[in-house]
Amino acid sequence: MRTRLSDHVKERLGTFGLMTPSIAQCAIGAALAWIIAIELLGHPHPLFAPISVLICVGVGLGQRLRRVAELVIGVSLGVGIGDLLVSWIGSGAWQLALVVALAMTVAVLLNSGALFVAQAGSSAVLVAALVPGDGGGGLDRMVDALTGGVIGILAVALLPASPFTIAAKHLSGVLDALSTVLERAAEAIEKRDVDLAAEALEQARTTQDAVHEYEQALETAKEITLISPLHWHRKASLARYETAAVPVDLALRNARVLARRTLAALGEASPPPPALAEALREVSEAALLLQLELGAGREPTLARQALLAVAARERPEGLGFSAHVIIAQLRSVVVDLLQATGMEHEAATDTLTPLDEASNEGSRS
């Protein structure tokens, strides 16, 4: 129990460390946008300026440049419809409902993006309920939104999170998950333990979220290197993470099939031999090597060599059907990870020891 609590605390602290730059960007950017809107633009209550910074920067991972465009257009739409209707029908509960419904309806017809629609609706709410009598017109609010968006982009450029750290942390989660699935499957084969095989399968089924988080983190990292001059030199290192994105996703998908077949194989008359468990463990260790080498900013030569050694190994004899499928999927994982190290698909496939037609059934390699 204490170990789980400690791991949870470490995970939360790690997440906080990763998000600290975004929190600083939001806090400093919101204050600057407020000051600029009041002191330079002369707007008495520039609510949309700091709000725009928060939406633009956020505290999560996403596409900020697109957010700015959606933000400004969404605010303009919501403010325009809100100002127009409030000037005709006044403010109140039913007026608020009508203003929000019309603003969001028009937004959906123009762009189904969640941020765009939500921003149009929330802007209409502020116009109809909070600020109709502050003396500021719709144009002022649009300018405030644009000001906040620009400040948000500047905050990302001048106070950036490390794109390399973001990509490394999330790819580490993906490769850790892959390594764990393969390790548990290997242990299940060695011990002839159906429960361990079931655990490996359950672990494999929960890995897709890590892949989606990595893809989103990679987009954010690429965006930071585009916006921030401080990280332009990171583009080469980040390219390795881009190369690995699709192959590690495929590797996890193949690992899920492998885990399912491991569970099935342990119920057959001829269970997988220990030599197969050894191969699974070697690929598991190669995944961790890949994680370490990419994290160090190096070419993943050690991981590639470990994978090539597995690819060149002869298959065990006397295998049942499910064991053949496990080997086929493991070969696919090896090809995927070789591609993640930078090899082309054809070259990676050519490294595999040829299989006869019977053993090749079920393989995609």
Notes on the structure:
The chain is built from 14 helices and no strands. It has 365 residues and is mainly α. It folds into two domains: 2-158, no CATH class; 163-350, Methane Monooxygenase Hydroxylase, Chain G, domain 1 (Up-down Bundle), CATH 1.20.58. Helix 2 runs parallel beside helix 6, helix 9 runs antiparallel to helix 10 (235-265) and helix 11 runs antiparallel to helix 12. It starts with a helix and ends in a 15-residue tail after the last helix. Residues 357-365 have low confidence and may be disordered. Residues 197-224 form a coiled coil. It is a multi-pass membrane protein. Pfam families: FUSC_2. This is Aromatic acid exporter family protein.
Short description:
The protein is mostly helical. It is built from 14 helices and no strands. The protein has two domains: 2-158, no CATH class; 163-350, Methane Monooxygenase Hydroxylase, Chain G, domain 1 (Up-down Bundle).
